[in-house]
Amino acid sequence: MAFVLQSAWMGLSGPLTTQEALSGIFGSISLATWIFLLIPQLILNYKTGKAEGISLAFLFVWLVGDVTNLAGALWADLVPTVIALAFYFCLADFVLITQCLYYNHINARRARQASVASTATEEEPLLTRRRSSDTLGLPGSHRRRSSARSGGRRDSLTKILEEDEEDGNAWMRNTLSILGVIAVGAAGWAIAWQSGVWTPTPEDGGDLDEAMKTALGAKILGYASAVCYLGARIPQIVKNYRDKSCEGLALLFFLLSLMGNATYGASILCHSVEKDYINTNLPWLIGSLGTMAEDAIIFIQFRMYSSKPNSSAIE
């Protein structure tokens, strides 16, 4: 994502055109999106204490893509801020992968312990189990069982209503989070522009020849990272399909990914639609647009595999 951020650090000073302003704003929003991207999944894993829902293959391939971008940033000798952000993304990927591996290890060990305990319970003498069931024939036990079933129905209905309320709150939180990221990105652009940190990059600047010298190596790494980003989603899509579930995935994580890719592509197209400029940025455009299509598939899976109340839940 380091090359994705390159346009976000192109300043906008002096007389601005609408095209330059939009390019800078979209680039800054994209930058803010990438910074906050992994936080929702980290928080969800921490709250639930598990990470079975996310594909490790997805994360590892994504890490390869970020490492490729970091290498490209160093090769192209981009500004230190871009290199630092590329390193940040690699570090964030590493933290998320480490968290997932930790929770998977802990939960697998607990599952083995539970299996051993279950085996020990099955080997208990039958007399012990009979004694525990002696109360089934006592007067009033039938009424207690009936009331328990009735209570179970009420509990199930209450649970369904609580889940619906939680879904509504989750969508509200996601919406507010996205609006917050947009506000942070736009404010960051305004501050950088007013302070002179950003300067508009002319389409026919004097450094064009120098840029063309590094374009080949950057383009190779760009296509490599695009392939990684496109391929990373496939294991997650396959896992969701096999499990028929998206449980354990943070929807906001994929919403931010969609917004980050959309705003990055918009920042490129707003800056220039000249053929040479588009060809130079083609790898990252392909990676962004392709990833958006795959994220759309995951959104469909969220909808298809969302938990729905059925008859057995209220019987």
Automatic annotation (TrEMBL):
One cellular component term from this protein's GO annotations in UniProt: lytic vacuole membrane
GO terms for MF: basic amino acid transmembrane transporter activity
Pfam families: PQ-loop
Alphabetized InterPro entries for the sequence: LAAT-1, PQ-loop_rpt
Location in or out of the cell: Membrane
Source organism superkingdom: Eukaryota
Transmembrane spans: 21-44, 56-76, 82-103, 176-196, 216-234, 246-264, 284-302
Catalytic activity entry: L-histidine(out) + L-arginine(in) = L-histidine(in) + L-arginine(out)
Membrane topology: Multi-pass membrane protein
Keywords on record: Membrane, Transmembrane, Transmembrane helix
Residue ranges, annotated region (Disordered): 132-157
GO biological process: vacuolar transmembrane transport
Family recorded in the similarity comment: Belongs to the laat-1 family.
Listed name of the protein: Vacuolar membrane PQ loop repeat protein
